[in-house]
Amino acid sequence: MITINPSLKSRIHSIDFNNLPFGQVFSDNMLVCSYKDGKWGSTEIKEYGNISISPAAQVLHYGQAVFEGMKAFKDSDENILFFRRDENFKRLNQSAKRMAIPEISKETFFNGLDQLLKLDEKWCKSENGFSIYIRPFLFASQSCIKASSSEEYTFMIILSPTKEYYTDPINLVIEQEYSRAASGGVGFAKAAGNYGASFFPTNLAKKKGFTQVIWTDSNTHEYIEESGTMNIWFVIDNILVTPALSDSILGGITRDSIIKIAKDLGYQVQEREVSVNEILEAHKSGMLDESFGTGTAVSVLPISSITYKDIKINFQNSNLISSKLKDKLLSIQKGLLKDNYGWIDCLNY
Ligand code: COI
Fold first, then answer.
1. Separation of 154 CA from ligand 1 center, angstroms?
2. What is the CATH number of domain 171-333?
3. What is the CATH number of domain 2-163?
4. Which of 144, 131, 136 is nearest to 113 (CA)?
5. Residues 4, 115: contact at Cβ < 8 Å?
6. What is the block-wise mean pLDDT of the chain (349 residues), using blocks of 10 residues?
């Protein structure tokens, strides 16, 4: 059951949609649902605004929190098109399970999203380049600083109108000291702490002029895992190669979509171990054609350069396979191409 107490006055007219820094502008309404006494309570959609939590809320002390990143688009008939939201639902609950957080029901997630998007559909623009970034998240809200899993949780969804995530060229450096995730840990989950822990090494790289780091395995730093908040890809001798999923790599929904699109476009795709050495050798022999990242926020993002110690690999920026893949993905997401994959569901009024 959802109670709807919408915002009475929209803020949309005060927003400059031509200047939308990622993740700083939020729509008029948000969804909130609380878990107590062993069950999720009723859901409320209400005006977007600050929430009040106890200074002893467990999330503030132990980081028991997970989130999702998903997008909806608007087609030229002003229909809202959700992209693979069933996959985000599945992944949210997988992440929740790993972090000992109670799972969210389908009804709360899908019906909640429908009602929220119906209220705030104007925040999703149909012009090219726009989408609405949907951020569902779950956190431990019990007032208790005992180091054990919480008995109370909060589930929320907020919406952020979005254009590009990055506007400048992407220069990456291969990380040799720090790790994003370790075997047996929570790297496969969208756990808040994975991101928090990445900021210090990322800031060190930024100080040296890089955009993000390329994460390598925590044991040897010889194998490539992800980059920043993206899955990473290489085009080696016209074959698309991306690290195989493991418990230290997030199973990106964009990654999975690009695997399917690339195969259908006739490219060979390999999901396997990718060593730093292989990338350096492929570069030396002239076989390394491209590198790109995939993720909900970035979509498909060509990489300008990769640095390892004193070696810098520069990539060309024309006639890219990644541009073809991105165009096809976006055309499906925007309803311009027939969706043969069953990835789109349209918001029904
Ligand atoms: C996404 O692509 O949705 C991400 O997870 C990136 C986000 C941390 C900004």
1. 20
2. 3.20.10.10
3. 3.30.470.10
4. 136
5. yes
6. 96 96 97 98 97 98 98 96 98 98 97 98 95 98 97 98 90 97 97 98 98 97 97 98 98 98 98 98 97 97 97 94 97 96 94
